[in-house]
Amino acid sequence: MKSLKSGEIWKQMDVLIFNSWLWWTRTGPQQPWDYIEKLDGEVVKDMNRISAFEMVMRSWAQWVDKEIDPNKTKVFYQGESASPYHYRGNYWGKSADTNCKSEFIPLNETMIFTTPSQCTNITKNILSQMSKHVYLLDIETLSRFRVDGHVSGYNGYNGTDCAHWCLAGVPDTWNSILYAALLQDNNN
After folding, report:
1. Pairing, β 15-18 against β 74-77
2. What percent of the chain has pLDDT over 70?
């Protein structure tokens, strides 16, 4: 957690876009790591994912504050908001055993479960404490309305895949938001 591989290359970029949360939910064979090194150097097989996420985000924020020149590089962060929980229909007024696989139109609700996740709150808190500006691509609520936007409803996949999105649609909206943000002067 104390190192950022390729960090020297990243410092030369005009735009950096980071995300993280998706990988923290993986366990077992889908988990992309074998061990976690804490900031104090202790190596553990596993730990509370929320605590690990916060620790990594703080380490990342320190790196950005220390290493990134905001006159050269714009930094964006897209958090866990990219993959809202569409596995259970009770989040949008259907039965709990319903999922996004059978949904083919966006939600047209005035109210859905929109309380920010614990990780989103951690991310916003850490970003607010940083000395360098990081633009948060806050698409969590927007994405929750798009239960129709996942590939599993269209590609014949038997399972539910709420981590990937169909083009065109949701990613196009994210790209429009990113494009608008790139045009802004984020160095104020």
Report:
1. parallel
2. 80
Domains defined along the chain, listed by start: 14-183 (3.40.50)
| pTM of this structure | 0.80
Structure tokens at 56: 């990594």
Structure tokens at 15: 């735009």
Structure tokens at 10: 């990243």
Give the dihedral sign, CA 170/100/107/125: negative
Q: Which long-range contacts (CB under 8 A, 24 or more apart) does 114-123 make?
A: 114/140, 114/141, 114/144, 116/140, 117/80, 117/81, 118/50, 119/21, 119/24, 119/50, 119/53, 119/79, 119/80, 120/79, 120/80, 120/81, 122/50, 122/53, 122/54, 122/57, 123/57, 123/77, 123/79, 123/80
Q: Which amino acid is at 179?
A: Y
Q: How many Å separate Cα 24 from the centre of its chain?
A: 10
Residue entry with tokens 């596993």: 46
Confidence of residue 169 (pLDDT cuts 50, 70, 90): low
| DSSP SS3 for 170 | helix
d(CA 114, CA 120): 12
Q: Where are any strands of DSSP class E within the chain?
A: 15-18, 36-37, 43-44, 74-77, 134-136
Angstrom distance (rounded) from CA 93 to CA 72 = 46
